[in-house]
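Severity: low
Component: inverse-folding endpoint
Summary: output formatting inconsistent between runs
Steps to reproduce: submit the following structure tokens with default settings.
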């Protein structure tokens, strides 16, 4: 029997899932297999892509600018999100029932922290771009110390939101406040998280809208003096494209998940949030892959650095394989490597 005001720290995960009405499967269902397969694929792509972004920023001195520090932090947050989602994929489905309360809060906390850091960094990048445009500079002259403090602030906020549920913002002592999507969390936590992300999006819309109108007005004024209307139109269309891509990616990846979080947080009983929650979480995780394409891969210098890094990896691998093949050939008494053109033996210096 459930008593109001009593705490249930010694209960199992199944107890809280039954209380919230969320099914806890004891075997792998087709839906679980599909979600895990997609989740593992997305996680691996997120890890590889963001590792490449971090390596590019670290290896190219041209990227040692405030905006690229923030892009590196975004890649680090998305890399963390990939690790968190990978951890979730190995502790979901029938394995959820075997988790301890601490293990469940760890699984949830990793996701909340990484995704919060990613969203907060997106806002920081928008603010930095606003400063750059208003100062008419390619990169803003923010001191490195202030950039570091900004990054530290992002992670402090992310860790705060990620750790709060495990220590206080849960429903272990108030079962009537438990959410359906996350049966150990308070509905108010989900509502605040969703509203916070919505606020970040609205701030990004305001910042990028101000950037767009400022640049359009400035370019139009220049066009009147130098009569370069085609170039003005091209610049304006390019800016519109950039803003649409940035905000569109955020809306597509985040809005579905934030809507169901908000509905669950507000206690909507008629809303079937459990039918779509796993897919919408996967879509939010895919944003960590999209961020690399939207914020880094559209940079020409970044693309060149990617190609150089990938070529280095390929050449090193080819060199090792060639060296191994040569040593094997030398070890055989009658083995010769022949060139197809003239039949002469291939010399070691060619390898």
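Observed output (run 2 of 3):
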């Amino acid at each position: 029997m459930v008593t109001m005001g009593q705490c249930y720290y010694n209960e199992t995960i199944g107890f809280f899932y039954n209380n919230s009405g969320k099914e806890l499967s004891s075997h792998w269902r087709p839906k679980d297999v599909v979600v895990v397969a997609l989740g593992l694929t997305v996680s691996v792509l997120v890890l590889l892509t963001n590792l490449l972004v971090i390596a590019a920023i670290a290896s190219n001195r041209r990227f040692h600018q405030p905006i690229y520090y923030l892009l590196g932090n975004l890649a680090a947050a998305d890399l963390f999100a990939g690790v968190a989602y990978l951890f979730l994929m190995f502790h979901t489905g029938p394995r959820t029932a075997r988790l301890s309360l601490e293990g469940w809060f760890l699984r949830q906390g990793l996701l909340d922290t990484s995704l919060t850091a990613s969203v907060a960094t997106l806002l920081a990048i928008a603010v930095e771009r606003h400063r750059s445009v208003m100062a008419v500079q390619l990169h803003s002259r923010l001191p490195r110390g202030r950039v570091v403090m900004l990054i530290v602030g992002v992670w402090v906020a992310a860790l705060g939101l990620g750790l709060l549920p495990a220590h206080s913002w849960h429903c272990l002592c108030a079962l009537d406040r438990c959410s359906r999507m996350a049966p150990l969390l308070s509905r108010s936590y989900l509502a605040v998280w969703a509203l916070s992300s919505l606020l970040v999006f609205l701030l990004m819309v305001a910042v990028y809208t101000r950037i767009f109108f400022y640049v359009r007005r400035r370019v139009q004024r220049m066009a009147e003096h130098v009569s370069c209307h085609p170039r003005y139109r091209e610049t304006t269309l390019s800016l519109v494209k950039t803003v649409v891509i940035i905000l569109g990616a955020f809306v597509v990846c985040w809005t579905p998940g934030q809507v169901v979080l908000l509905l669950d947080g507000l206690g909507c009983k008629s809303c079937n949030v459990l039918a779509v929650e796993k897919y919408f979480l996967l879509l939010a995780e895919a944003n960590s892959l999209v961020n690399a394409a939207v914020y880094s891969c559209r940079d020409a210098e970044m693309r060149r650095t990617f190609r150089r890094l990938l070529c280095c990896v390929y050449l090193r691998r080819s060199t090792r394989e060639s060296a191994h093949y040569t040593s094997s050939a030398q070890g055989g008494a009658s083995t010769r490597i022949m060139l197809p053109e003239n039949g002469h033996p291939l010399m070691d210096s060619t390898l």
